[in-house]
Known about the structure:
This protein has helices at residues 3-22, 73-85, 87-93, 107-111, 123-130, 138-153, 162-171, 173-184, 192-203, 209-220, 235-248, 254-260, 297-310, and strands spanning 30-31, 47-52, 57-61, 67-68, 206-207, 265-267, 272-277, 281-286, 289-290. The chain is of the alpha+beta class. It has 2 domains: 3-66 and 208-221 and 235-310, DD-peptidase/beta-lactamase superfamily (Beta-lactamase), CATH 3.40.710.10; 71-203, DD-peptidase/beta-lactamase superfamily (Beta-lactamase), CATH 3.40.710.10. The strands form 3 sheets. A 5-stranded antiparallel sheet has the order 3-2-8-7-6. The chain has a two-stranded antiparallel sheet with strand order 1-9. It has a two-stranded antiparallel sheet with strand order 4-5. The protein is globular, with a radius of gyration of 18 Å. The mean pLDDT is 97. It binds 6-diazenyl-5-OXO-L-norleucine. Residues 70-71, 103-104, 123, 168, 175, 203, 251, 267-269, 294 line the site of 6-diazenyl-5-OXO-L-norleucine (DON). Residues 70-71, 103-104, 123, 168, 175, 203, 251, 267-269, 294 line the site of 6-diazenyl-5-OXO-L-norleucine.
Amino acid sequence: MSELELEFEQLQQNLPGWVRASQPCSAHGRVAAYIPELSKAPGEALGIHLIDAQGRTLTAGDSSLSFTMQSISKVFTLILALIDNGEKKVFSKVGMEPTGDNFNSMLKLELVRPGIPFNPLINAGAIAVSSIIGGDSPDEKSSRVLQFFRKLAHNDSLDYDYEVYRSESDTANLNRSMGYLLKDNGVLEGDVDDVLDVYFKHCSINATCADLSRMALVLAFNGTDPITGENLIPRRYVQIAKTFMTTCGMYNASGEFAIQVGLPAKSGVSGGILSMVPGRYGIGVIGPALNAKGNSIAGVQLLETMSQQMDWSLF
Ligand code: DON
């Protein structure tokens, strides 16, 4: 049996136990409520789906739960913006550095000139990125985003959760103020409300752990879906996305996550985490109860256990 076969077997044997052991820590977390619709999620849930290059899958726990991608979508809108505009333009709108601040902070937009967001994975950065996605109207931009996500997830039924979209749009005072500040700083292109609409829509795309794992698999294989052999993203843009995931993907807990887990990952406030073992697996995790930094508390615990047991850290 090859090393990979052995590893897969070991994962198959251990995954249900690791999920059972990590699940209780969800009691120490809280489901996000600042987007009212998100507060309906089951806080005690924990699920995982993993896929390899041959399309073999492993699932455990509440892996069939569907949830909105929220900030996980920012990785892929960044990639689409890079495809549409190239690096030079994208990096005239957002920087390449972690902030150490909360994901929804706008502090540095005023403090640090020239007032561009530090990176594309904080809210301000993702809003700036939304403004340069190709398309003649907000609807066309949103529809290009959805098509791109469907292709990466290999799932044509991927769609918006309109309840969550409306819930966020109706309550997003902070993101709106960020949009206007970005416009004033000369960063946002186009109408602020149009840009925010594209942003709220991509955050509200519904997915399951299986969808996240298939999207992650494309990143794990440098832009080519190893199951179909189709090249979906230029390698350079995958490199940029994975670097941001490693340095900023878990917000101001990214350093700790790099030490404890050591894999590229991106979290969302709905409790999803997209991660991967480069060259091996795409991974999708859901655990709606969050820790103080906005990351799934049980999901992070599960990934820590897996990475440490399997010796997956890249570092
Ligand atoms: O803009 C927001 O606040 C949400 N749509 C996304 C934030 C998010 O997922 C941050 N995650 N940890």
